[in-house]
Amino acid sequence: MHLLENRIDTWEERANKVLLNFNYQYADEIDIYDICWRYGIIIKPLDHKYFAENEEYTAIKHLKSYSIPKKNGRRGTIYIVPNLDPIEKRILLAEEFSHIYSHYSSQLLTDKLSLDKQESQARRMAAYLLMPHRFLKDIYSAALNEPILISDIADHFLVTEEFAHYRLELIYKYKVDGFVQIRERLWSLEIL
Predict the structure, then answer these.
(1) Which of 39, 152, 168, 169 is deepest in the core (most CB within 10 A)?
(2) Do 33 and 93 lie in a common domain?
(3) Domain boundaries, position 61
(4) Tell me: the pLDDT tens digits for 144-184?
(5) In angstroms, how far is CA 53 from the centroid of its own chain?
(6) Could you give the number of structural domains in the chain?
(7) Is 5 within the bounds of a domain?
(8) Residues 108 and 185 in one domain
(9) Cα–Cα distance between 27 and 135 in angstroms, integer?
(10) Per-residue pLDDT tens for 63-109?
(11) Residues 60 and 79: beta-carbon distance below 8 Å
(12) What is the chain's alpha carbon radius of gyration, rounded to the nearest angstrom?
């Protein structure tokens, strides 16, 4: 296992560039609302009263979240369904922020192949934003003293277990359910 191998891809670079503007000391301090506010991104409820034309709302009312980027400046508006679970909302906001930060076209006007690619990129950047490598090192250190399971990792980063799995798969290229020290070496766990 290559615990601290740090191959940075462009989406991680983008997330790190965003996080450099903040002085987060702990993983649970990462505030996606503050990040959006500082980048001039407005967050509104996904509700028909916020849309000028009913046609626009009809096209997106089945979604949990949707973003509309402005033509320049990495600004825009994120619409999100009210009353979502706070953890799910946090992840969706990070993904929509990533769309506005990285993509300059409306998702409704994009073909399926491009849309799938943009969704994948936004999810990837959101994973790097909410679970930065420097805070994953805290998990590795804690696992030297006691086994750390995926539920612990998800709780530490205020994300779902599914999202934590996704982030760890970006590093290890296989499913990781936790970490444990055996014979003075740190190992990843996969629960079968």
Answers:
(1) 168
(2) yes
(3) 10-130
(4) 999 999 999 999 999 999 999 999 999 999 999 999 999 88
(5) 30
(6) 2
(7) no
(8) no
(9) 6
(10) 899 888 887 778 899 999 988 999 999 999 999 999 999 887 666 66
(11) yes
(12) 18
Same domain, 75 and 137: no
Maximum alpha-carbon separation in the chain: 64
Average pLDDT over residues 116-122: 91
In angstroms, the CA 130 to CA 125 distance is 9
Residues 6+ apart with CB under 8 A from 191: 177, 178
Residue 1 clears pLDDT 60, i.e. is over it: no
Same domain as 52, residue 146? no
The letter for the amino acid at 132 is P
Separation between Cα atoms, residue 30 and residue 25, nearest integer Å: 9
What is the pTM for the complete model shown? 0.88
Would you say 156 and 189 are in contact if contact means Cβ atoms under 8 Å apart?
A: no
27 and 112 both lie in a single domain: yes
Same domain, 55 and 74: yes
Burial 16-53 (b: 16+ CB within 10 A, else e): eebbeeeeeeebeebebeebbeebebebeebeeeebee
Q: What is the CATH number of the domain that holds 112?
A: 1.10.10.2910
* Alpha helix positions (H), the chain: 10-19, 32-38, 54-60, 86-102, 112-130, 133-143, 150-157, 161-172
